[in-house]
Amino acid sequence: MPRSPRGEPSSRREALSLCDYFESQNVDFRGKKVIELGAGTGIVGILAALQGGDVTITDLPVALEQIQDNVHANVPPGGRARVCALSWGIDQHVFPGNYDLVLGADIVYLEPTFPLLLGTLRHLCGPHGTIYLASKMRAEHGAETFFRRLLPQHFHLELAQRDEDVNVNIYRARHREVAPAGQHPFC
Length: 187
Fold this sequence. Notes:
Blueprint: H1 13-24, E1 33-37, H2 43-50, E2 54-59, H3 61-74, E3 81-85, E4 99-105, H4 114-124, E5 125-136, H5 143-150, E6 155-163, E7 168-175
């Protein structure tokens, strides 16, 4: 089981909720180009790699060693998972802009980073790609602002799942220009 940088078992509810969602919805990662942002332990990206995705797991440099250890412990040799540093709004252009799936769990909590995150999402998500974000809906951190005002300016946004018990929402988003007029963007 992936461990956090402090060594305790990963219990980040948002990441586990997102993994549970993928399992319940039978999300198909096979052959998909996937990137996880702000990975923490890397559990979401590890799941995507184990399910056949070509996965890039990213976080700030300080977290990379622990993520790499978790990948080595949980992804068999030959699995397609690599670990890279990514600082939103600074070096996202080093990465291609055509990912099929962009994943993030508990990355919407620091309001000053919202424009940087939004720019990174806009760059990384391919024109036909999908973003999945799991977020604890903390009023004090501005999560509602990000999901109700900022993200919808550039993406079609759908609340895919809500877990009232732990106050976690899972959102699915796609670029606005993807859906032809009169057609739902998730068809």
